[in-house]
């Protein structure tokens, strides 16, 4: 089976409907090779339906996740735990996503002890915070993501301290530059518009 163009290997749960409330308990889903379990519910009445969703999953192969997103780099490592909580109405839901990973790899670099929290507001924005150790240097991330805006974008500040200069050479235009020493602090502030992706029946993707 497929959902939104992505493969679903397994889906199970016990559903019920009583007094204008729908529930799905003991939910077990395996999508993209990722095991997820939890509960969901929806209450109908005056106005928009009220939604409740609590999911958790892991361990998750970073390589399997990267395969589903063509723009993502090849990744290694394991995401030990993902927790998703959504509360509110279907028109203005709020909630959070928490991700924990002991070690991830991309571009030949290592990120360890990563903890990321994404908190969704009812206005459609999402506050992102996180911390990790990049190539032995403490790193913090803070920013805001606007998905439902007319022009989706992300503002992100990444700060890294006591970083070996050699570790950033792969990200610079002149990759043949010889870098030495330790950067006491490096801070990147970035604002970028996001492109929406669509998937056709053949599985190919494109932006629009």
Topology record:
Elements: E1 2-3, E2 6-18, E3 21-31, E4 34-43, E5 50-57, E6 60-61, H1 62-67, E7 75-89, E8 93-106, E9 109-120, E10 125-134, E11 137-146, E12 153-164, E13 182-193, E14 197-199, E15 205-207
Antiparallel strand pairs: 1-2, 2-3, 3-4, 4-5, 5-7, 6-7, 7-8, 8-9, 9-10, 10-11, 11-12, 12-13, 14-15
Features:
13-stranded antiparallel beta sheet, 1 helix, disordered C terminus, mainly beta, 208 residues
Helix content: under 10%
According to DSSP, the number of beta strands is 15
- The low-confidence parts are 194-208
What coarse outline follows from CA principal-axis ratios?
elongated
Classify the beta-strand content into a percent band: over 45%
Helix-and-strand structural type? mainly beta
Number of helices: 1
- Radius of gyration over C-alpha positions, nearest whole angstrom: 20 Å
Beginning-to-end CA distance, first to last residue:
26 Å
Major sheet attributes: 13 strands, antiparallel
- The arrangement of helices and strands along the chain is EEEEEEHEEEEEEEEE
Q: What value does the average pLDDT take?
A: 77
């Amino acid at each position: 089976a497929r959902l939104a163009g992505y493969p679903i290997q397994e889906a199970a749960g016990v559903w019920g409907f009583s007094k204008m409330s729908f529930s799905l308990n003991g939910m077990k889903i395996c999508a993209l090779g990722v095991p997820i379990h939890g509960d969901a519910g929806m209450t109908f009445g005056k106005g928009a339906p009220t939604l409740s969703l609590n999911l958790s999953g892991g361990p998750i192969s970073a390589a399997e996740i990267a395969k589903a997103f063509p723009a993502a780099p090849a990744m290694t490592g394991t995401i030990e735990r993902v927790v998703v909580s959504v509360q509110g109405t279907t028109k203005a839901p709020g909630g959070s996503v928490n991700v924990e990973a002991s070690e991830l790899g991309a571009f030949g670099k290592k990120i360890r002890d990563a903890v990321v929290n994404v908190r969704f507001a009812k206005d459609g924005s999402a506050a992102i915070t996180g911390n990790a150790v990049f190539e032995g240097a403490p790193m913090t991330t803070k920013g805001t993501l606007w998905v439902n805006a007319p022009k989706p974008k992300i503002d992100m500040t990444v700060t890294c301290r006591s970083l070996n200069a050699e570790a950033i050479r792969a990200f610079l235009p002149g990759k043949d530059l010889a870098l030495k020493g330790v950067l006491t602090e490096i801070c990147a502030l970035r604002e970028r518009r996001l492109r929406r992706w669509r998937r056709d029946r053949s599985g190919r993707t494109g932006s629009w």
